[in-house]
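Aim 2 progress update. The chain analyzed this quarter is reproduced below.
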Amino acid sequence: MSSISLPFYQKHHRHYDRAYRDSSLSSTMQQYRQEEKRSTATHSHKVKSKFSDETLETSSGSPQMKRAKQNYHSEGHEHISGFTDTKDERIKHSKANLFSGESHYFETDATEEHSVQKSAMHKSRKVAIRESAERLSLNKYIYDTQEYHRRLREDSLLRVPEFIIKPRSHTVWEKQNVKLHCTVSGWPVPRVTWYKNNVTINVHTDPGKYVIDSKFGVHSLEINNCDFDDTAQYRASAMNAKGELSAFASIVVKRFKAEHGDISFHPGGYAHHSYDYFPGDPHMKFDVHIVEKFDVSFGKEGDTLSLGCTVVVHPSLKRFQPEIQWWRDGVQLKPSEWVQMHWSGESATLTLTHLNKEDEGLYIMRVVTKSGYEQHSAYVFVRDADAEVAGAPGAPLDVYCLDANKDYVIVSWKQPAVDGGSSIVGYFVDRSEVRTSHWVQCNDTPVKFARFPVTGLVEGRSYIFRVRAVNHVGISRPSRVSEPVAALDPSDRARLKGVPLAPWTGQIIVTEEEPAEGVVPGQPRELTVTEATKNYVVLSWKPPDQRGHEGIMYYVEKCVAGTEDWQRVNPEIPVKSPRFALFDLAEGKSYRFRVRSANSAGIGEPSEATEFTEVTDKLDIPKPPQHVIPSRNTDTSMVVTWEEPKDAKELVGYYIEASIDGSGKWEPCNNKPVKGKRFICHGLQTGQLYKFRVRAVNAAGLSQFSPESEALEVKAALAPPAPPYGITVLESVHDSMVLGWKQPQFQGGSDVTGYFVDYLEVIDGKPGKWKEAHIKAITDRAYRIHDLKENMVYQFQVRAVNMAGVGLPSLPSDKFKCEEWTIAVPGPPHDVMYTEVRKNSLVLLWKAPIYMGRSEVTGYYADIREADADDEKWRSVNEKETSKRYIKVQGLKEGVTYVFRVRAVNRAGVGKPSDLTEPITAETPPDTKEITVDVDDDGVISLNFECADMPDGSKFVWSKNYEELIDSSRVTTETKGGKTKIIFNDPGKDDLGVYSCVVTGTDGVSSSYTIDEAELLRLLELSHEHKFPVVPLKSELAVELLEKGQVRFWLEAERLSPQGQCKFIFNDKEIKNDEKYKIKVDPKTGLVEMTMEKLEDIDEGTYTVQLQDGKASNQSSLVLIGDVFQELKKEAEFQRGEWIRKQGPHFVEYLGWEVNNDCSVLLKCKVANIKKETSIIWYKDDREIMFDEKHDFKDGVCTLLVQQFSKKDAGVYEIVLKDDRGRDSSVLRLLEKVFNDVISEVCRAAAQTATDLKVQSTEHGIRIYSFVSYYLDDLKIIWYHSDTKLASTERVKSGVTGEQLWLQINEPTEKDKGTYTLELFDGKAGHKKSVELSGTVFDEAYAEFQRLKQAAIAERNRARVIGGLPDVVTIQEGKSLNLTCNVWGEPVPTVSWLKNDRELLGDDHLILKFESGKFASFTVTDVRTTDSGKYSILVKNKYGTETGDFTVSVFIPEDEELQAEQQQEVKKK
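Predicted structure tokens:
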């Protein structure tokens, strides 16, 4: 195998050797080489191979030949060369490769099979079959032998994975592809997994990014389209049953830095896709229309901003979608952390997820097709986020790395436009390692220069940087972080060969030449100082011509001016790259520099020394720009131009500021430096005068501001109008046609004054030359073109004219044929437009059709549908045709877009609809004003309208019923500034109608006001009131009585000035303010009042109040005569008496009664003006009610509680209050009706205390009962059974026992089932309680009744001892004892006697008798001591048994005497 066919990772690799000692690996590599050769041959002779295969397959001629090819070897070869997903198959087929002792079987068998197949075509069928059978037998023998040896050696062949060739590290450019290879051995065959920074690589997460392959023991990882994030450590992990082993390799991705702004070539770049590369019809043309375009946008740092357009491509083919590209300031954007793009097939959206000032600029959305591209652009402004400290500067921007080495990097940025009000003193640079959040400040003191070299980096690590600005107030927010940069030596670039010299292949070719020892390198060449500041100096040179074949390093030396003392700057660590930065040089001194090359053979001669370089900033702050000139652009923007400052170096752009003239406040127009000498400042206030100033920016700082420009008013610059559109034919006859069109969407800043129409003839489909239809401009949007040829086809175009000139012509119209219209219905209305657009309504206007049909037009129908709805969704706005040429469309949905059309009607029917209006969204424009009606003090009626932001040249146009006001004698128009009004000279019925006002030169500013008969009447009444004013009254003259019986006359006016006058007139005589009459007027409240101390008979009559306030006057009268006067006088006297009464103790509330919940009656009253000495006395029927305790006037309430109120409590109750100040009493008559009301209320309270009905069983039947807290006879009780009133009978009885109300049902039957209701009638209303006596309730109650009944019977007839027996009987010995007791029982019980629980039998000594079934006797003759004991009588029948007990004690008299004598002797002793 020649060296050129070796993979690049094996060329002169230190692990690579053509003489492998491992036979298994040699076999694998041999198969790999054969596979490579076969793939090459197949690619070169594809057609030939295909023909040969087909010939071989068809010439074999028999199934046996096809089957013979599928031998054991071929199957094994397929498994070896392919990739097997399952673990068992990998182990099974990989083991066969390790039997090197049997490899000759494979080779022999393959050779024989090939020769047999080659000669099989020339042999007979019989011979071919025999040889095929022998071959199959041989193959089976070989397979059995291999299986035997496999089982024999399987345990001894297991070994851990081993990397024969490890993956090696690479350094590549962005957009390039890179491939890592490794070769692994081991048994079982190891499985290789690839990791990136210890994270498993998943090819499915980013399809097309990674390609992982494993063939013939060679494993590879291919990374496509490398970017900076692919800089990482990669690991190949090989694992099998014996263990795991890993090998590491690093990939460094470098970003191409173009020089002198040349970005025409980028290594690894790609051509953007367009339709030129897509298959399809090469002559197909795509028409692209961009609608709903994004406009100039304003954002704030940290916000999210989305830009979007709707794109319409015709024809629309799903297979061929356009490519959507987004550009910012000429640089194409790619999806990233900060930028998200979306294309839905109709809408293209760009989302800036976190705005920074870097995102400011001109954005272009480009739609690329095979026919070319269409684009739309608009500027995006990003203002600074609010500073964390008030007065701190804005954040720097555009942080990026100029140069990177293994231990330093030069960071560059741009200064912010906002300094917070005080100058920026410098900047802090921070760094952070990638994928960490720890930031380290790189400089201790702020640096003023916008570039700074950061040292102390760790080689091989990646960093990001940010910058913060500092002023005397504080520190700004940090800038957006830079792109990551790796700290690596730039000498790695030399390993990339032919980057811009040859077409990019996507493959990195690395060459390592054979070492040549003993050659000392020569002098470095072209040493120069590329950058010098007061902080650092950067040197650059080229490697020496003589350097041998090994790597070289460099030593840098410096020499201070005025000496010849050369000092080595890096004596310990030589540099590998031909670029070096020197720090810690003395500011202001001059130095020379030189460089020496070195390798293992020694250190070469120094290069030629540089010229003396002074350590200072070479770049000065630029001078201010000059000649700042603003010019008008739109009504919110202006174009600012300026001249570049003289001797400016390395300018990065300009900052522009604007100020409203006279305000003294300057605002930045851009927050990102703009290049060029022209900028459009957006976001200005229309009509304001603005001044501008500019300053230049470079790395050294910001220049002083330029001289201020002249002040210029912001308004739209005049321009010719846009082309009209929507050309249609309104009428056609044999020699003329009437055209209609729509006015331009952009009128160029002034009203369109006319139109020009051109036409051309179309003959055989070929258009002729354009001809002018007229010479003088026409003002209407409908025009008849004469002298046309009948049946000729024409096309038309229209141009609009304004003060700026003639605009561009419209697109050619459709082709129209000049022929006579003969249809009966009218033609389409034209010039359909809308006005007064609001969120739920608008007004639709149109003009009558030119072609009327066969009869006059009688009316119109207006149709509406949503803009994106189908034609089937059209609906009529008006159910009945309208004769007017306008209609107000109500009921729109806010935010919904609609289109409209109009149809004319005559007697023949409904004609063709007009062209559709432009889509309009139902929403009320901001700051919308409406027409208001006003009636001034002189009664003049006017309609008023105003437009706050009225452009120059615009005017108000009034119309009535949407037609120009012709009769100027009816109204007078007055306009001043942005306000206008029409004054009605003599309002009347002739002025009824809809009055509208439109402001020309605006985006539809308009309004209307309708004056109908009701509104006219209201305005005329209001006008009369203003002409003949009256003092408005809130209330007419009224009279009221005050607390002391005084009489107050008063009225209230809505308003009175301090100069208002008032007069009181009584019976045609004016009343003056004196002792009897007190008159008071309050202008603030409009209250007029007069007070009289006492009303007498002479005061009867008419009272009048007359008001005069300027021109306004009014009066109000009050008549007090006859009964009205007498009633008022009587009430006044009563009030006076009441006031006198209340000077002592008195009743606030007189004696009354109330019933408590416990049915008691409480008599109470409320008193006031009480003292300790005040006494209270209660009387009933003139008798004093005595109390044990003195009454407590708590809360001023006196009470008397009557418990269990009844008829005996009827009477007259009186309570008396008295002390030294006076006496007051209150009487309550509890008689007749009042008493009955109290009784009724007590009954009601008692009825409400009734408990729920309950069911109880007795020995006689079932009882239903309820309890009340208090019962009195006046409470009527009624029982119901199933809505039937029950009468009292022997079987069913009702009654009251205490507080229990009951119903007794004796001997109940099935008929007694049902609902039982207790009604308690209190004299006014009934209160009911019910219970259901049926089902289980009845059954249980009835069963309990039967049980109780039987128990009662048993209790009555039970055997019992009624009486006659004592408890204890004491008897002397020798006496007779006779006891008799009564016994009861039915049937007659049996009687037996017991002694000490033993039955006694009668004899002569004990006589036992039971007579008449009632009397039992017990007789003991001649009582003995042995008769003492406990005796019992036992009576018994079938209902029960009862026992009567008694005790008999027998004593001897002698023993008692002897015992007494003994006790006396004891006492004596």
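The longest helix spans residues 125-157. The CA atoms of residues 759 and 796 lie 4 Å apart. These observations will guide the mutagenesis experiments scheduled for the next reporting period.
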